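Issue 218. Parser rejects a valid record. Input:
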Amino acid sequence: MWKQGEKWVVVLSLGIVLSLFWVIGIRNTAQAKWIDWVSLGGEMQGDPVAISLWENHVTVFAVGMDNALWCKTWMNDAWTDSESLGGQIAGTPAVVSWGQNHCSVFARGIDGALWVKTILDGSWRDWVSLGGEMQGDPVAISLWENHISVCARAMDNSLWCRVWQNDVLSNWEPLGGKILGSPSAISLWENHITVFARAVDNALWCRTWLNDVLSDWEPLGGEIQGTPRVVSWGPDHASVVARGMDNAVWIKTWVADVPCLQDDSGNLDIEEHEGRIGDEIVIPVRIQSAPDNVATLGFEVTYDANVLEYIDFYFEENNLATSLQFFDVNKIGDSARLIIGGYTDEAGIIKDESGILVNLRFRVIGGEKGCCYPLQLENLKDNIARFTKTDGSFTIIECNGDMNEDGAITPEDARIVFECYLQKGPYTDCCDVNRDGEVTPADALCVFQKYLGKDSCLD
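Output the parser choked on:
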């Protein structure tokens, strides 16, 4: 589930905030900025949690010094008075929305049981005990309307969960593990939940439920304390942050190995490409079966500036750009956007003609192994305005000498590289093991030396 070999990275130092109940906001304006801290009052213990049920709405929950749950709501540009929701709570609550204008707050009671309080259509219902003997704080997540999964660490230090779905509440189910602190959870897709927790070895562990199949517990390494927090920041992307033993904040990121699905059918097309970090790569832009004559054209290419750095462009004698009297590519400031255009007062590119228009040269500066990064065609203008287009993609590869990807470097991998040199086998960028721009017997020798444990270009 999580990419093997992903390293923990420290991102900032963790300060200690000794305050009761404060909030900071950010304005959504053309010149966004943080608003100053504002005290919301109250005298609280533990950490607050918050939820937004609709636009311009936030409700914040925290446990008061009386062990009751208190809440305060921001709506219509104003904060309500603090409201006690009663209960006798220990630790930090968890809040989840499971339908329009519906949410539930889960908390461990001072009796060790899990309790829930629900608001339906603006009216709070009474506290209900869900039983169990818990320590640590619960985590709750909703996958769809009228569904909640809630999990917590039980007295045996294993994870236990209970599911409410379509008005039916399941029994408590043990999910095993030996964990410390409180869990966190995330859902990235339909029928998916991954739960994270600090285990007794102080490493981060996770367990995933996907399409009704429950994985084993998986170690994610690190040495942490406290409760890990997980967030999704894009499709198939998630990051976990946690406090390390050095009291710094550490982050571990997961990016799905999503295959690049290349469609080459467009009249204007960017070829699929792959490469390694540090490589200079050339990505062609092609015209295929031009539906009309082209005397003037304009379009833009966007790319991920965290992965690719634009260098320059070129075209060769047989490239279609030579049919135009003027042709240029311009990178717009610090953006990841290229404006490309050309014109001629002669015949230009002839109807039904195909070929490479221009080659774009980039340097690979970052990215995750196996991940796909788009290069998109936008704003087609003039004679190509009605062309169909197919975007391109770039995939990060990592070449470590394991050519057959069996998990070990052996003489078989050296043989594969040598056959690549002889043009008997398939060519991949990884055949150029020493990265000198060509495949030679020296590349096969490098792999064989790595197998023997000798110094090699792979070290």
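Fixed in the parser; the record now loads. Residues 14 and 247 are 6 Å apart (CA to CA).
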